[in-house]
Amino acid sequence: MKTSFINEDFVLYSNMARKLYHDYAAKMPIYDYHCHIPVSEIAENKQFENLTQIWLYGDHYKWRAMRIKGIPERFCTGDATDYEKFEKWAQAVPYTLRNPLYHWTHLELKRYFGIEKLLNPNTAKEIYDTCSEMLRTPEYSVRNILRKSNVKIVCTTDDPLDSLEHHRKLKEDGFEIKVLPAWRPDKAMLVNDVTALNGWIDTLAQLTRMDITDYDSYLDALKKRHDFFHETGCRLSDRSLPTVCAEDYTPVDIASIFRKIRSHAKLSDSEQLKFKSAMLVELSIMDYEKNWTQQFHLGAMRDGNTAMFNKLGPDTGFDVIGDFEIAGPLIRLLNRLNNQGKLAKTILYNANPRDNELMAALVGTFQDGITPGKIQFGSAWWFLDQKDGMTRQINALSNLGLLSQFVGMLTDSRCFLSYSRHEYFRRILCNILGSEVEAGELPGDMDLLGQLVEDICFNNAENYFGIIFS
């Protein structure tokens, strides 16, 4: 029986790389400042019944690969049994060679379950039964998986209308791993669907017990929720957009547009852009005034397959890399905020690899000389979250900025077993540095290199986000 290729020196191709990883990177805890894991499942300390539930539910990366292999939808998102879905995934795995899913799958099997065998149709039943039995034990409750992963902090992704009750429960329980909300106000500016936006605004009005009669009262209600998030420990926000909007507008323009929204009138393209531009400025100023960090995930084209979107909804594996204009609007937005003295700490992520150098160069333009790495080029995101993508992001940041100030990896996942991706990132980082030492391009100074590795793995994030761990 073939055994796993995931050995202790996986992706570490030099003695220096191995030393940097084993002596420095491996021991560092995880600072997961952006993810999509359900906070309700942490609060209830969920116990998964089987491997399919923790591994395949909601994982559009795996669904996408299964569809490409020709596996019918009922085994991805449909009514097949949990084991039938797992069996089909096991059939697909051998065909994912050179896709990051092959690495992730076997890394997770080894790290969490001690399984050395390769997953394929012949091993599927044994692996499923073994892992499922382990998952049903207290050692594999959600909270214990986080402990096993050496996680110190988790920042979830939360709509401004969320009650945050689960975050409060975790704090009341005294759970030693900090689980904090992150403000995701995308729905507050969805002007392409005025009906849905008005429903969202009506709920906001009920929640805040405020009459939202005009744009100013809308901002006041949002600020009230922003205050509530801050009181619950939130220190980060996030926007996921094709590209930012940075049109010129006047207060009179936005007041008029908001009246049209509330009267359910259709907005012109120009009015939509102006409203989004104004909202991005106001939301960014809210973050600045509370010393939050704002994140912009840019460049993904959502829901390209409208037939499947209408059938299954968003986040089901039908998004693509977009080719939007990124630099011009982003510079105008950041410059506008910077000129007002209201530019918060900012992390920028791109979905298109063509934008790596663009982002790496752009972040150097708005540093303030006070906050180390104030504007960050974020880790390789989504379609780029793989060995080549991480390497290219690290190289672009190194060439055009300071790798030493990088806040490092995040999970950006809905799966509790995805924390092994931090190990994957750390191995890739150490391999890049180790290879350049071996080539004579970097000094073999262990104190210098070891500190760099530890900082990128954890210390920089701890210092940057300013969240107190007491």
Describe it for me?
With 470 residues, the chain is an alpha/beta fold. Strand 2, helix 9 and strand 3 form a beta-alpha-beta unit. It folds into 2 domains: 94 residues, uronate isomerase, domain 2, chain A, CATH 1.10.2020.10; 317 residues, TIM Barrel, CATH 3.20.20. Helix 16 runs parallel beside helix 17. The protein is 49% helix and 8% strand. The protein has a 4-stranded parallel beta sheet with strand order 4-5-8-9, with helices on one face. A 3-stranded parallel beta sheet has the order 1-2-3. Strands 6-7 form a two-stranded antiparallel sheet.
Short note summarizing the structure:
This protein is 49% helix and 8% strand. With 470 residues, it is of the alpha/beta class.
Number of domains: 2
For the CA atoms, what is the radius of gyration? 23 Å
Major sheet size, sense and barrel closure: 4 strands, parallel
CATH architecture annotation of the largest domain: Alpha-Beta Barrel
In CATH, the topology of the largest domain is named TIM Barrel
The CATH class assignment of the largest domain is Alpha Beta
What is the CATH homology-level superfamily of the largest domain?
Answer: Metal-dependent hydrolases
Q: Strand order across the biggest sheet? A: 4-5-8-9
Shape: globular
Number of helices: 19
The average pLDDT value, as a whole number, equals: 97
Q: What structural class is derived from the secondary structure elements?
A: alpha/beta
List keywords for this structure.
alpha/beta; three-stranded parallel β-sheet; 470 residues; globular; four-stranded parallel β-sheet; TIM Barrel; uronate isomerase, domain 2, chain A; 8% strand; 2 domains; 49% helix
